[in-house]
# Entry
Amino acid sequence: MEALTNRSKPVDRRQMTVWEKSYLPSIAKGMGITLSHFFKKKASINFPEETRPFSPVFRGLHVLNRDEEGRERCTACGLCAVACPAEAITMEAAERQEGEENLYREEKYAAKYEINMLRCIFCGLCEEACPKDAIYLSETFTPANFTRESFIYGKPDLLIPDPKKEPELYQKAVGSRAHKN
Amino acid sequence: MITLVIDLGFILEKAILIGGIITVSLVIAMYSTWAERKVAAFMQDRLGPNRAGWGGLLQPVADGVKLFMKEEIIPNASNKFLFILGPALAMLTAMMTSAVIPWGNHIEIFGRTVDLQIADINIGILYIFGVVSMGVYGIMIGGWASNNKFSLLAALRGASQMISYELAMGLAIIALLMLTGSLSLKTIVQQQSAGWWNIFYQPLGFLIFMVCAFAECNRTPFDLPEAENELNFGYHQEYSSMKLGFYLFAEYINMFISSTLMATLYFGGYDIPFVNDANLVNSIGVNGTAALQAVALFAKVAFFIFFFMWVRWTIPRFRYDQLMNLGWKGMIPLALLNMVITGFIVLLKQNGWHF
# Structure
């Protein structure tokens, strides 16, 4: 039969010689291999001091974005909820009142916005569906927790810090992908 | 009437020596645990402990504190006296072996000549064998007193393994004794200082001795008494806190002592290679020479300890029948063959043959 690849090798079925049967050459070879690893570059990273950079396409925890003046971008249109294949997003809309123009960018805003992180599959479709660039996936992982309830993230958990009041926290939340502002 | 004359200075010097050697072996065992983790990490492309102190040097201290702080559990159905005796015996036998090993030639202090050896007894090797074979009681008693099937099985395995390999070890040593003609470790070292190291006369004997030393110390690839995935950690499964710590610690002390023995018997002990000790004494004095000799011995020991670890992280564990096969059908016939050949050559030499 013709071989499918040129990588196939016939099996050596010869009896082992006495020298081979003592396993000393194989052991010496193995010891050489382990010793060579002694001098190799280590793959470890000293975690809290060094962090491994995220891939540019990494999709982490969701963030509800604000604009440059610190107003919420979300208009509670519900496109993200519709786009969500896991049906993890729910929201309730409310109308902006007089004097709240510094809080919300449009006339309508999300009074309640919840993402169930136990259902979310971090597919990023909400991010793509959003016409207002209001929701995007940041560079953090979902933290562990003890109760199921605490995995339902409300607006206080999701909203990005105000860029005017807390610029440092805002930059941290935005991460290296600041172009998504 | 018998008058007993006791030289107080002699007692003092021995007490200091005993204290010193015990401290040294404990510290070396302590840092062997650190080195073991570092070596393992480096061989697996990791970093190993590096948080406590510089390069993780305080890690053994942290481990010790942890072990002492842990809850001590003695199982209800166990034999309490034997349960406590087990780790104590393991530790005791591990510490006792260092008594006959020469750590250097001698030093001169306040006009006294002090031998750097606790006891230069003329049955040195026999003493070591006697004490080492007591070590199996630590495992056996610990495993039995736990009242746990797995511990008992592991202890049985440990005991039969030790007995099997001690035979081959003894036979390997006999071949060496034919050449040296003395059981005293000091004499053996002095002979090697004068001539060649024994490794050149007894390469096969050394190989057998080393493999058996691995088995005696329960080190991988022969760590069957504590095979965690077959026997739930084996003979020390029911042990907690510092009693477990003693068992683990005894293993490291044993490793240190075996390394010292290998260096002493086959690699010239405290002999500094390529240096004439008599000339060295003339240039830097007796004490300086003794210090250098101790350094030479510890360098050899450090290499062997590293070798123990190196092997541990290379060779996988034997199956039990493979272990017994190697011991009875491999090591013992080889050791016998080695003995016969050595005896033959010794006889030829005595009868005037020159090589």
Notes: The beta strands of chain B are 106-109, 112-115.
